[in-house]
Design a protein that fits this description.
2 domains; 226 residues; Rossmann fold; single chain; 8 helices; 15% strand; globular; 6 strands; alpha/beta; 6-stranded mixed beta sheet
Length: 226
């Protein structure tokens, strides 16, 4: 049985608002983030889900609780937290100023005087950007392409095992992780180049097939357009 997967990005956080690097480190949802999520939750309130899951980071947990509490047609009990769906890990850069971080990453990638992540990726490619981030990290802890690929595959496998008897599930994850899933699994992506970063509270819809294969069929859309 195939499982329909609604991937929701968490709401805006304080670190999003302050332009700080936010991967495995956490910060609370802002008032705007909560209000945006309430609109998403209201749109999804009449969609039946067999289950809901989330990353184990608090901003995702808070988001999935909003989704569950607003839903009027599902009976969701305790929500299982899946660390495999955490945000991309930025190592020593966690919590640092975004532009200062991207300057260091750009330098490691052979670029100078660049602090905009989109322009860096457009010049060197998403995979070289991952490698440059790990290289620029003083402790080399940031996830590179190979490490992130391995975690994505594990995430899909874990979700497949959990949802084997479920027709539709919702899982709250994170912007860069959902984007990386999109690069790999979205049927409109070539699997090589960067794609747009998903909005806070947006929905990407995937199909997890019985044989374990996964595909994203809708990416970064307003819940009302699903």
């Amino acid at each position: 049985m195939a499982t329909e997967v609604y991937l929701v990005r968490h709401g805006e956080t304080m670190f999003n608002q302050l332009d700080k690097v936010q991967g495995w480190c956490d910060s609370p949802l802002t008032v705007k983030g909560i209000n945006d999520l309430k609109r998403t939750a209201q749109v999804l309130s009449q969609v039946y889900f067999d289950n809901m899951y989330s990353s184990d980071l608090k901003r995702a947990i808070d988001t999935v609780h909003l989704m569950r509490d607003a839903n009027q047609v599902s009976e969701i009990g305790k929500i299982k937290k899946l660390p495999e769906f955490r945000e991309v890990f930025f190592g020593s850069f966690e919590g640092d100023d975004i532009r200062d971080t991207w300057k260091q990453v750009a330098h490691a990638a052979g670029l100078s005087n660049e602090d905009d992540v989109t322009r860096i990726i457009n010049q060197v490619g998403i995979y070289e950007f991952r490698e440059a981030t790990k290289q620029a990290d003083p402790r080399h802890l940031a996830e590179n392409k190979a490490e992130l690929d391995e975690r994505m595959i594990q995430a899909i496998s874990v979700l497949g095992d959990l949802s084997r008897q479920e027709q539709r599930v919702l899982i709250v994850s994170h912007g860069d992780f959902i984007k990386t899933l999109g690069i790999k699994y979205w049927n409109k992506s070539d699997g090589l180049h960067d794609i747009i970063f998903p909005d806070n509270g947006s929905v990407s819809r995937g199909i997890l097939h019985e044989n374990g294969e996964f595909e994203i069929v809708d990416y970064n859309v307003d819940a009302k357009d699903i």
